[in-house]
Every structure is written in structure tokens, then in C-alpha cells.
Amino acid sequence: MAPFKTLDDLPADARVLARLDLNSPIEEGRPRDNRRFTRHAATVRELAERGHPVVCLAHQGRPGNDDFVSLKGHAELLASHVGREVAFVADTHGAAAHEAIEALGPGEILLLENVRMSDDELPEADPETKAETEFVRSLAPYFDAYVNDAYSAAHRAHASLVGFPRVLPAYAGRVMEAEYEANTAIATREFDGQVTMIIGGTKATDVIDVMDALEGKVDRFLLGGVAGELFLRAAGYPVGHDLKWMDLFDDQWERTHETVETLLEERGDEIELAVDLAYEDETGDRTEIDVDDVEEKTTAYLDVGSATVDAYEPVIRDSAAVFLKGALGVFEDERFADGTVGVLETIADTDCFSVIGGGDTSRAIGLYGLDEGDFSHVSIAGGAYIRALTGEPLPAVEELQRDA
Ligand SMILES: Nc1ncnc2c1ncn2[C@@H]1O[C@H](COP(=O)(O)OP(=O)(O)OP(=O)(O)O)[C@@H](O)[C@H]1O
Ligand SMILES: O=C(O)[C@H](O)COP(=O)(O)O
């Protein structure tokens, strides 16, 4: 049985309130185009084509941050992906929002203002409390159904995510369905062969917790990125040098070294570390060094080296399932993309079940001309993906399940 109701269960003609996650990098006040728009556009298009009036909710940034902006630009970008007009009203739940909702006809789409501009949205609280906020109470009567498509925000107990499903019949959108299924696969599916997890990126503390939590679920871990260097440091190599303007290594080392040391000691045979690393030499070129030749902690390493990619390749080819979280290097700079692109190319070339996680990391697929169709699932979730992997509950998903 599906763990929640989906769009297949949605009554015809229902007036729909749909929560999307369009949270994006902001450039000159406007959202940078990314997978979240393409994916949610498909759900919104399906709803509009079926003749539902569709009112969308989404957030952007947090109050006080530079990326806390209006959703006007998001409405335009969403419209270009849906292929239909998306109206926008600069109001979250006041009179202007009510008027625009009432004027909406079948198949028409409206995006309301950044939900985090309402004081009721953010403070985390239990669903009953969120359902009693003015935001939820004033908007809910305009709708027959609530659709949550925002898997990537499902770890937040905010009003638009846990309040509405208490007062409206609640359904999972297509993105919610697909993300839930792929991201829980590591815990829920039995694979006929080796399960491998490739760990990288900058959020070492988070991914190390994932490694700890996945005992017995994953056979091999292949490491790179910041987490990889912390493991190398624990193994006695003088790596993990912080550039002056970044504090990626020392702070996370303080927080994680005990877990890292225990993991290496108790489950070292599951863990593969880089055998070489790449850095920028005096002339600005990429140079590689064997980890055994690193003498002092004075160089910032920005990628794993080519011998590491070669060593990881047969492990990936031998796997029935591969989950990736975080990049193996600073792939945004072409000189340091080889590690990330190398493992992605190998995964793409195999028939294994594969999930590519991490909003930043999945950008490498488009940047380096890989085909998204060569992976089982490319996730648009960051924090929610991590929480699903560590077995932490996702409050917004729990509300959908409760309503089912
Ligand atoms: N050795 C390294 N030094 C510095 N940055 C690195 C290194 N290796 C990888 N990165 C950076 O890691 C980033 C990707 O991982 P990160 O943990 O930030 O996010 P993610 O897992 O892709 O996604 P999300 O932000 O959605 O959680 C890339 O932007 C890449 O530049
Ligand atoms: O972008 C994300 O990861 C989600 O939209 C959650 O955003 P938040 O971390 O600002 O709550």
C-alpha cells in the first residue's frame, strides 16, 4: 500500500493548495534556474491540465539572509517550465491573496508570496499548533485539498508543511512520491548484491552521521571531499588544510574525529579512502600527489586524484546499488571536476540502482554533459535526504501518512 494518498486519489474539480520547494540560489535578486523548477512544474502542469485551480506555496531563504527575497521571479521561471501562465500576488494570506485565489478559474495557476514572510510560518512547532495559526486558518477555507510536493523541505515542521494537512485532505505530489521512494530505498529495499555509498561534499558532520547510522545497510563506502580528508587525517595523513577564508576542516574535525576514529577502527574494511589528491600548483595548474607523499598540512586539496578514481571504478561496477551524497572535489572549477565526474560516469555506465543526492552535487550532471536518464534517481533534496538516510523522521511526510 502506498504510504500516502497521491494525485491519483485527488477528487476531480478539487481546488488545490500545493506546497512546492522552489528554494534556489539567488543571483541579482532572481532565482537561478535549477531542477526544482523542472520537477515541480510537472506536478503543477498535471494538476492544471486536469482542470484544478492551483494555488502554490513556496519559500525562499530565511529572514535576515541575502537570499530572502520575493517569489515574483520564481513565478516567471515556474511559468516557463509549466508552459502556462503563473500569476503572482505579493501577499501570503491577506486580502490581496484571498481576492486572487477567488478569481482563479479551472486550470489556472497562482503563486503566493514567500511563505517565510508570514510570521506564522517559521518557528518549528507541532502540527496542531501550526494548524491553528492565522496563516493556515485564513487560507484553508478556500481549498478542497492540500498537495505536498516539497519532499526537500519535509524535515521542517513549518506551517505550510505540517499545518495544512491537519485541516485539509492531504495528498503527495509526484516529486514527493518519487523522492520518497528513491531516498528510502537504502533502508527499505533488498538489493541482490553489494550496496555502495559514495560520500563527499562539504557537510562532513552530516555525512559522517549517515555513515554511522547506515551500519549493516551499506557494504562499501567510497570517500572524497571534506569528509574524505577528515578520514585521511584520522588515518595519520597531514591533510585537511583550511584556506584563510574557509573553515571547512578544523571545526568539523573537532566535532567528528571521535566518530571518524571509531568508524575506521571498527568498520575500516568497508571504507575506501583516496590514495591521491589534487591541488592547484604555483602556475595555477592541477597537480596530483600520492597521499603517502604528503608531508605537511600546508596545501588545500580540491579533488581526489586519478588513481583514486581508478580504484573506485571496480567497486562501483561490482555494486547492485550506488548512493552518492556530496561531490568528491570542487567540481565547479573544471580543473577539480575529475573525481566527481569520473565516478558519475562510471555509475552512468552501469545498470545498478543509483541515487545521486545533494542539490549542489547533482548540478555536476548538467554541467559536464551527463545524461540524467542514466541514473535511477537524481534527488533535489539536501537536508531531507540526509535525514531520511539517518532514519530521522520527516514531519511533513508523517502528516501525509497520518492523513492516509
Ligand atoms: N576538497 C574540497 N574542498 C572544498 N570544497 C569541496 C571539496 N570537495 C567538494 N567540495 C564542495 O562540495 C560541494 C557539494 O557538497 P555539499 O555538501 O555542499 O552539498 P550537496 O551534498 O551537494 O547538497 P546540499 O547542499 O543540497 O546538501 C561542492 O560545491 C564542492 O565544491
Ligand atoms: O533548500 C532546502 O534544502 C530546503 O528548501 C530547506 O530550506 P531551509 O534549510 O532554509 O529550511
Automatic annotation (TrEMBL):
**Record's family?**
Belongs to the phosphoglycerate kinase family.
Which residues are involved in binding substrate?
21-23, 36, 59-62, 116, 156
Detail which positions bind (2R)-3-phosphoglycerate: 36, 116, 156
- Read off the SUPFAM superfamilies from this record: Phosphoglycerate kinase
> Which protein, by its recorded name, is this?
Phosphoglycerate kinase
What assembly does the database describe for this protein? Monomer.
Gene Ontology CC terms: cytosol
Which organism is this protein's natural source?
Halopenitus persicus
The EC class name is transferase
Q: Which GO terms describe its molecular function?
A: ADP binding; ATP binding; phosphoglycerate kinase activity
Binding of ATP occurs at 332, 358-361
The compartments listed are: Cytoplasm
Q: Which reaction does it catalyse?
A: (2R)-3-phosphoglycerate + ATP = (2R)-3-phospho-glyceroyl phosphate + ADP
GO-annotated biological processes: gluconeogenesis; glycolytic process
